[in-house]
Amino acid sequence: MSATKKSRNDEKLKPVRPSGKTDDTIFDLIYAIARQIPRGRVTSYGAIAKAIGSGKSARIVGWAMSNAGRVKPKIPAHRVVNSMGLLSGKHAFKTITYMQELLEREGVKVKNDKVMDFKTKFWNPLEELF
């Protein structure tokens, strides 16, 4: 078949995303999971990446979180930390301490930019959502 000629199947197939729509982006999938992180809990970039079926894409989750301030409805990006509980995304917030302030308002203790008691505060989307 030539490059200009399409098969009948090529014209009919459209990928269906978890929402049932055909226009979800990877950021949409990331945000859908992030919106479900409960108050007072945190998850990691890698945990979200695994939940969307792309376990090696933690960096993409980080990019999504750094853009989350522009998204409506709001994304609780302050609840997403690195795999050791560090507030590695704090630079994306309006002040360098705002991520910590938001977490502490929800009862999450932070010391030296690290979530205290990370293991008990950790929310695993693979266990909670699937």
Automatic annotation (TrEMBL):
GO terms for molecular function: methyltransferase activity. SUPFAM superfamilies: Methylated DNA-protein cysteine methyltransferase, C-terminal domain (SSF46767). It comes from the Bacteria. It holds the Pfam family DNA_binding_1. The keyword rRNA processing does not apply. GO terms for biological process: DNA repair; methylation. Residues 29-108 form the Methylated-DNA-[protein]-cysteine S-methyltransferase DNA binding domain. InterPro entries: ATL_DNA_repair, MethylDNA_cys_MeTrfase_DNA-bd, MethylDNA_cys_MeTrfase_DNAb, WH-like_DNA-bd_sf. Keywords: DNA damage, Methyltransferase, Transferase. This is Methylated-DNA--protein-cysteine methyltransferase. It comes from Niabella soli DSM 19437.
